[in-house]
Amino acid sequence: MKEDTKAIRGQIDRTAYREHSVPMFLTSSFVYNSAEHAERMFNGEEKGDIYSRFTNPNTTELINKFCQLEEAEDGIVTASGMAAVFNTLAAHLKSGDHLVACSSLFGNTNYIIKNILPTWGIDYTLVDASDQKGWAEAFQPNTKMVLIETPTNPGLEILDLSFLSALCKKHDAIFCVDNCFATPILQKPLLFGADLSIHSATKWTDGQGRVLGGIVVGKKEYTQPIFDFLRRTGASLSPFNAWLLSKSIETLGLRMERHCSNALRLAEHLEAHGKIKRVRYPFLSSHPQHELAKKQMKYGGGIITVDLGNSKKEVFDFINRLTIPSITANLGDSRTIVTHPATTTHSKLSTEEQESSDIYISTLRLSVGLENVEDLIEDIDHALTQLS
Ligand SMILES: Cc1ncc(COP(=O)(O)O)c(C=O)c1O
What we know:
Elements: H1 3-9, H2 35-42, H3 57-70, E1 74-78, H4 81-92, E2 98-102, H5 107-116, E3 123-127, H6 132-138, E4 143-149, H7 161-171, E5 174-178, H8 183-186, E6 196-200, E7 214-218, H9 220-233, H10 239-249, H11 252-272, E8 278-280, H12 290-296, E9 303-307, H13 312-321, E10 326-327, E11 337-339, H14 351-356, E12 363-367, H15 373-385
Parallel strand pairs: 2-3, 2-4, 4-5, 5-6, 10-11
Antiparallel strand pairs: 1-7, 6-7, 8-9, 9-12, 11-12
Helix pairs in contact: 3-10, 4-9
The site of pyridoxal-5'-phosphate (PLP) has 13 residues, from α4.
């Protein structure tokens, strides 16, 4: 079956009620036919759901669909994207280990690496996204894992997955890619040699800004320790969220095509507009890693990052003049979103840290929605006319 068919038809088995749409299994535990049956389930002789902190039919369906889309052997779902990132790190790293990570990472991931892991004796080296020499030199004998995002948030830098996976193989390190910005529709890191692919399902997978969720897929030898850690520590995804996210996957491919075609059209328009200093979008030929983006991604994604080149006051006035985009810090919604990273999502970073992630006072992140792109262009153009 082709990818879009798999995303729609990958349902769990029908129940005795012969429902067409998969029901929600809002149950904490599952019953046994006898005490002997319970014993067999607990000692692993018989497979099946025991307790929803471990597994549930709705979470199983979501995992199966994601594994199909990313061509992964196994997966885990978590209560949020951050739980997916944290459980991956916590399940695999121990005191004395060293982590190599990109200096451009989502703010909370950055916080975990800099402020939580060191208190547990886990050291780190951060490398600039495009510093190939820096990546090669960052490995130490105790390097256990490499963690990156590509495209990065909000700089939209592209990291070379094949290059990094070869380095990880050489140094026997687990290669984890936060694939949140690309989704499995645009990019499949495991096919480029990554060991684990991590998602905030809160974003494009949900697609309408309703629920939180996280997903990790990859080789079973790397997912199993995360499952074992998660089932005991409890950041499990609720059946309701899993049910909703699994339904959303049915339209993910279609939605991403429209998000990306809208984004490309808007990016080209903004680049040609005289009032914008810089437009960053991986599928614009002006993007420094345009060729690499085309090699790794099917389309350019739904995020555009622009630098207006004006003062904070002028940038805020521009945001306030927009009538269609919502001013919120989420992304990956059917509705276009405008975010000012320096004062919201990345406000906990120092100015130097922001600038090393290519975030300036006039940087704006646009998460392009599913609206008619001509309406978006008209609205943005109108707000730009009053910009000095
Ligand atoms: C790249 C990336 N990873 C992880 C997360 C965290 O996801 P969540 O908000 O679902 O915890 C985000 C959230 O914005 C993100 O952008």
